[in-house]
Structures are given as C-alpha cells and as structure tokens.
Amino acid sequence: MKTASASDVLKINNLVPKVGVLKEILDETPDVKTFRISTPEGERPFTPMPGQLGMYSMPAIGEAMFSVTNYGEDYIDMSIKKYNDGVLTSVLHGLEIGQEVGIRGPYGNGFPIEQFKGKDIVFVAGGIGLAPVRSLILYCMRNREDFGKLTIIYGGRSKEDLCFKDDLFENWPKVPNTEVFVTIDRPQEGWDGHVGFVPDYVKEIAPNAQIAAVCGPPILIKLTLPILSQMGLPDEDIITTLELRMKCGIGKCGRCNIGSCYVCLDGPVFSQAQLNDMPKEY
Amino acid sequence: MSNIQNEMRAVAKELLESGKATVVLGWEKGTMPYDSTPVMIRSAADVDKLIWDEYCLQNLSTYLIDFINSEDKVAIFAKGCDTRAYNRLVHDKRINPENSIVIGVPCSGMKNPKVAAKTPAGAEVPMANACKECRYPNPVACDQKIGSDVTPWCTAKDFSDVEAIEAMDADAKAAFWKEQYSKCIRCYACRNICPACNCTNCIFDQSASGWCSKDVNASENQFYGVTRAFHVAGRCIECGQCEAVCPSDVPIMLMNKKFIKDIDTLFGNYEAGLVTEGTTPLNSYQVADPEEFM
Amino acid sequence: MKTVEKAKLDGFLGQLAQKYSVLVPVDYNGLTQFAPYSQVQEGVSKLYLDGNVTVSPKTVYLPQSEAMYKFRAQGKKLAIEEMPAMDKQQVVFGVRHCDTKAIQCLDKVFLDEKFEDPQYKEKRENTIVFSLACNNPKATCFCESMGVDRAHAEASVADVQVYEFGDTYGFVAVSDKGKACLDAVSGLGEAADKLPDQKPQEVKFDPSELPAKLKGMFEDPIWDEYSFKCLNCGTCTYVCPTCHCFDINNKIRGEVGMKMRTWDSCMFAEYTLMAGGHQPRQGKKERVRNRFLHKLQYFNEKHDMFLCIGCGRCVAKCPVNLDITKFIKQVIG
User: Fold this and answer.
1) Is there a contact between A13 and C115 if contact means CB atoms under 8 Å apart?
2) Are A102 and A19 spatial neighbours (Cβ–Cβ below 8 Å)?
3) Is the minimum CB–CB distance between C117 and chain A shorter than 8 Å?
C-alpha cells in the first residue's frame, strides 16, 4: 500500500490551527458555499497540492476536513455543503466576510500528478464532488502543455445544484482541447442540456481517456468505476477519493482507517488497484 | 449444580434438534475459574459447551435486543433476575417475546468474581453483592423451567447502605460521590450491560449535542452517573450487573437503590420487572401522588 | 546495581519528589492507576506494587482528557493560544515491562516523522521511566508471547531498570537520564548485578504467522462467533496500554474555550458516524473485527510490530470475558 511520503505532505507538527480570515464567500448552490480564506497578514494559509485537504474550524463549534478546491497567491478556497444535521456546516453557512476561523493543513496525499502527465484525462464528478476534482482540473489547465485532452463530465440533482457554474459554462469550455459535459438528474424547466445520471452519461459519452479522476456521492463512485473498467482503463489509472469521519487529519486519532490505511493520511485519493486490496469497509 | 447443567444441555439439544429454537444462549467456561461467559449455540453438537456454575452472573436477556428483527428463534437460560430483565425489555418493547423462549433456572446466588480474582485458589468466595440481597432467586416468568425452586434468603429490601449515605451531611455526600465518580473512566460498560438501559440512541452517544462533554472529570462523570440513575429509576431490576462490570469499582447500585427506596416511600412498594405491561410509578400520574416539591 | 530496602522505598521516592514530579502506581478506592506520589504522601491513595495497574501508564503521555490549546472567540475575532510547556521533569516509577513495550507502540504513532505530536513528544522527553520487572505474572499475562523481554524493559523507553528481590529493590540505570536521576539520590546500597527469579507465564503461543493468516480472514465467520457477546462498551480500549484513539472536543465558558483531546473508542458508534448518517462500521462484528485486526494485522503492516503487548488487561476486565488470547490461539490453530 502506498503511504504518503515526507515529500508528499508539508511537514506540520501540530494539531493546533492557525487563524484564517474569510475574504470572500460565494454562493455556489442553495446549499454549497465557497469560502476564500487568507491569514490575518493577507497570506495564503498553506500551499496544497490538488486533492489535498484542510481542517477548517470554528473552534467553539467544531472542526472538519474539507478538500481545498482552489488557491491563489494569498488565499485558499474551500467549498462546503451544508448538512441539516451537521452542526458545523450550518454555522459555517451563516458566517460573514471578515470572520476569523481556524485553519490547518494541508493533509492527505492529493492526486498523483505525475501519473496524469501526458495522458488524456476524464474527470467525473457529481454534486459537491466537483470540489476536489476541480483542484486537479485547475492544475491541469494552469500547466496545460503537460496534459492531453481534458474531458469533464459533471452532474447535479438540478440546475440549481450545479457547483462552479462559471467554470462549467464559461471558463473551462474555452480551454484548448477541453470538453465539458453537464447533466442533471431530472428534466427541469429552463434546462435544455442533458438529463440523466452521471454514470449513464459516462457510458454514453464513452470518452477516449487514458486515466480517470472520479469524485462524488458513494453511489456515483460505485456505479462509475466499473464503467471505466469496461472502457479498458487499468485499475491503476482509475483514481477516486474517499471520505470518512476524521478528527486529527494526521493519522493518529484512528477513526478513518480502512484496513491499515488512514484516509486522512494515505488518502483521500486512492486508485481502483489500491481499493481492490482494501477491506470493503467505507 | 451438575444436575442443572445436564438438564440445560438436554433442553438445548431438544430445542435445537426439534427446530423449536435455532439459537440457544447460555454460559460457557471462560478464561479463569471465576469467568463464566455467554455462549451462542446453533448446533445440537455444541451443547456440551453449556455450563452452570456459581459464576453464571451475566444476564442473557439483553442479547435478545440483537435478535428483535431476526428470523431466529432464540432460547435463553434465565435466572430470577434475568427473567425480571426479560419482562422489563418486553415492557419497553425492545425484544420480541414471539421469537424468544425463556428457560427458567432457579439460582442459589452467584459468587463475586471480582473478589474471586483476588482470593487464593480454594478459599471461600462470598456471594456477589446484588445476589446477597436477592428476593427473586426463582424465575418470575418463563416458558419452561429446569431444576427446583429455591427458598429466597431475603424477603425485604435492605437499604442499610443507602441509609448510611442519607445520614451524611450534604458536604460529606458530595465529597463521597465526587471521590467515587472521579474513578469513572466512562467506558459505559454499566450502561451497555444494563437491561433497563436499552435506548436505541443514548444521549451520551451524541457528544456534538453538548449535553455531556467527553472530557472525563468528576463533574461530567457524575452528570453521566446521575442521569443514568434517573433514567433507570423505576425500571432497575437490581441485577447489579452495572456495578459488577465496572472496572473502577464505582458503587453504582448504591445510587440505583436510593431511587428504589424513594419510589417505595413516595409511591408505595414497587418491584420492577414483574409484569410486561401497565404503568410504572414514574410514568403514571395519580391525583394522590406526593408533590411536596411543587 | 544500586539497592533500596523495600521498607525505605518511601524515603527514596520522597527524595525523587524533591527534584521531580513523581508518578507512582496507586490504589485509589479500588481503582489502580498512576498518580502523583503526593497523593500517597497525603494518604489519598495507597502505593500499589503487587501487580500491574488497571489503567495503564499511557495516561502519563496521553491523558484521558488533555487540553490542546485555548481559544477566545469574540464576534468575528479569534485568538488561539498554545498550552504552556512542562515546568518540571517527571519520574514514573514502577512501569511494567509490557507497558514499556506499549509506549514503544505509541512512539510509532505519535513520534512518526511526518507528523510528530509535540505534546506527546514533550512528555516523552521529560519523563524518566523506572521500569519494574514482574516476578509473578498473572494467569492472564501473555507478554512473553507478544515479544516482551521479561528480564529487560524496552530499551527505547526505560531509563532505570528495577528488579525486586525479597525485601529489596535493585536499580540499574539504562540511560543517561536514568543515571543522572539515580546519582541524585543519596543513601542507596550497592550489590552485584543479577536477575530475580521469575515465574514462567502460563499463556504461551507464537503469534508470528498471525498477520499473514488474518489478512485472508476479513469475511471469516469467526467474527460472528467472537463478537456476538461484545457489549460495545469501551473497557478493553480504555484499559489497553496501546489503544490510542482520541476525539477532539470543546470545553467552553462564554467566549473562552479549551480544545480538549479525549480518549475515544472504536467500540462506540459515534466514533465513525459521519455527518449525513453514513456508518462504515455498523455494529459489534465490524467493531470487534477492526479492533482485533488493528492490533494483530494492520499495525504490523504499517510498523512491523503488534499493537498488543500481552498485558492481559482486556482479558481480565472485559465485562463479558471476550478473550483475545483465545481468538489468537484459534487463528494460529
């Protein structure tokens, strides 16, 4: 089993968060907001690799792990879905610009960038699952010459539930050698795009890719991975992310283990080949 | 004892072979001579694992919760206290009487395994604390019975230990319980073995709710202990399992007995776990109920 | 070796207590654990050296509840303040060999080179361990099978090796810290180095094939057989000297709060329950399996050692006598 090496992750010796400031809050969908976070000195809190995670907290309420969907010179972006039974996400959704929050990271292995280089890539995502995949898409676009054709297949429950609409409909389709396919689960007034579930759409499009990155609700992952296998992708090149309850983020508190792997440390990114060797306990 | 053991094996064999039961829950010999531990038998060939000795302390009725929606037909062996637990669980609708068979076993009182662990082999081991005060050594209800009834060695409840605490002044009481609950490690063994603690979702499993912190200190631990005592008040069947399994030797039954004493005083003598329906003192209201606290 | 008569142990510990914070095994109203020697001096607890304590010395390095940092959240402002450093070195007297091995397991987790745990590390570096060899193992002890050397405590953990001979204790410094500590005490006797007579352990097996065997047993019916009687209480995990899972939560008074690290247990439902309700380990079977496999397979895959050191606490304290040694012997065959 591949474990994160010291060079994969920035050395952080601490479970104590830094103070971050909310610079911008964007409404993505009715229940997803993107939080732009800087340090009080106006710096980037940390430099994540695509797919890495950050521990975001309101110390008086709680702390939880989210993927870092994007970063700039002086900020990181985390897109967070509000769960009705989630105390922390409900509070986060009520915050205003200028709020100071706790932030620590980056954690986890991130996507294996080297493995993606030079290949035609299909990105498959559903709902908030686009957040981690987007960090990889943006990386590929910033280093466009290092990667082959980019095919992005994304779906949401409805038109309103689609995250990152500017990217999907404005920015990404303009990028050279890039195709974007968007679908929603059920027909809806004012939507003339594709209707249907993501795994079926993947089958329909049958993208000619050499490597895939898949992220979304468990059912999407479960149904999409076999389709990619049938398309002839080797297990090593079918890449997905897992999510389990986490507390420490650094492989010590115990709860996010799957067999001898910790999702926070050895994941959240795993290949189908790695999953084949792991107990089905996630 | 060995007669009862032989009868147990014969009954288990008959139930499994006839298909009247698909599972039999009894006791088998554990690691130490003073460990008799639950065993689940599914095949008549395994009935010789079953034992009956003076350490078959653990109540098996609570395992029926795991079978509430099961296709299995489950037979359990039950001492007097275990049948009270069984009634309590039926009363709380947490087990299914339709898929369970209770085989009553009269009991002469079990020995105290904690004392046994510290006693040299061969030396006399006293009765378990709860057993010393047992008034129901014979099954109070069962589908079939083995062995013959024993004569109860206690007829009235003994509250002398509760009275000793009541006699203390408020500061001494507070100091006593603080000292005891500072030992609690919040493993929840007392809760999880208790037939009255059968909630599907306990408040102490919801740390995000803020009701009780996971911070282990005398104050939070007492909040846990007192809340649990309140919640089993009027439902505690006095099996003493909570105290028997406590790794920290907190005198948990002392608090449960205080509630039993108060219920008896306020609402008249009450014995939990003798019936499977109807109201209990703390979930019914009568105009004549005392309410001097109002 | 240096020696102290048992009758004069109080004087010895008293001398240490003048220079260090001294922790000793005590019996506190029936609960045996490590506690400040001052409790013994004040008569609150009794020194307990007859056997190993129920609550292991992992509490010295990973207390059941520990403050991680303070915070003040006021309107939009947030201030975070780390905890003060330890002000004094501490001595832990009477840690058994099995428990020194357990601390070596904890080191693998908390002194991991990628993410060292500074609070753990600070305590490890500022603690002097007097490790006491057991002459009379209990019937539940199986440390020798799990690779514990009954003659010599784990070298990376112990600073002073302690042996018990009749009415005296013998001390051999095994680290520079330990030597400095012994040198600071006056009135010690001298004797030739020797080993005490140690009674053999009753439980014996060879676990070397376990990790490989268990790797193919994730779906084995053995898990139903063993887990049915588990209560899913936390006793085994809380008395275990190597179980180290923790939760992070708050203690808040108004605007000021303290982030606490508290022990957690893989036996509890909440441990893995996700926001949204997903539960990857549904019940007893999944939780017992995860705990046993963590101890006997997963930890080996990561660190090449078992996460069980054979102290037998879980065997002795489990309310339903779910005996890991019985399981191990059945798997070995």
Assistant:
1) yes
2) yes
3) yes
